[in-house]
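User: I've been trying to design a sequence by hand for this structure and keep getting stuck. Would you show me what you'd pick, starting by listing the structure so we're on the same page?

Assistant: Good idea, let's start from the same input. This is the structure you sent:
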């Protein structure tokens, strides 16, 4: 049986896989039953608890044309991985940096992930990232701000 990836290795595979849009490889990094939260999501996005929910989150299997935002070319930079007293838990700090293909505009989205990796699979992750900068890069900021207003007015 092959040796499991370390939490650091899983984190690095995750952020690089996201940037390179290797979605099936990204999904394989998660345990069947997982717990992924985005605490700073402006619309209080629901927690993701299964591979099926993660597939939907990453747009795997979505019909062609379902995604209507800008195309991003990005890479993770400024990566710092902090190991903790718990060997399953790491804190990864980084930024997604890149360009919006349609406009040539650069963008930066800072992020911090707090992950628990067991037997080489992500069983818990709290992903803190700047969702508004991400929406801006995707050309969806106005839609997100409208949704935030509606969410908080109701």
């Amino acid at each position: 049986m092959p040796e499991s990836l370390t939490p650091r290795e899983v984190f690095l595979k995750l952020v690089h896989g996201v940037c390179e849009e290797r979605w099936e490889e990204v999904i394989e990094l998660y345990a069947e039953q997982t717990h992924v939260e985005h605490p700073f999501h402006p619309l209080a996005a629901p927690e993701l608890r299964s591979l099926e929910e993660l597939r939907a989150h990453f747009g795997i299997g979505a019909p062609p044309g379902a995604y209507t935002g800008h195309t991003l070319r990005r890479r993770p930079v400024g990566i710092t991985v902090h190991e903790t007293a718990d060997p399953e838990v790491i804190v990864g700090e980084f930024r997604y940096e890149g360009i919006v293909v349609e406009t040539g505009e650069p963008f930066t989205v800072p992020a911090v992930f707090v992950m628990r990796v067991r037997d080489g699979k992500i069983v818990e992750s709290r992903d803190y990232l700047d969702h508004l900068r991400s929406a801006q890069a995707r050309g969806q900021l106005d839609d997100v701000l409208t949704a935030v207003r509606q969410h908080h007015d109701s």
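That's my pick for every position. To get oriented when you compare it with your attempt: The chain has a mean pLDDT of 93. The two ends are 53 Å apart (CA to CA).
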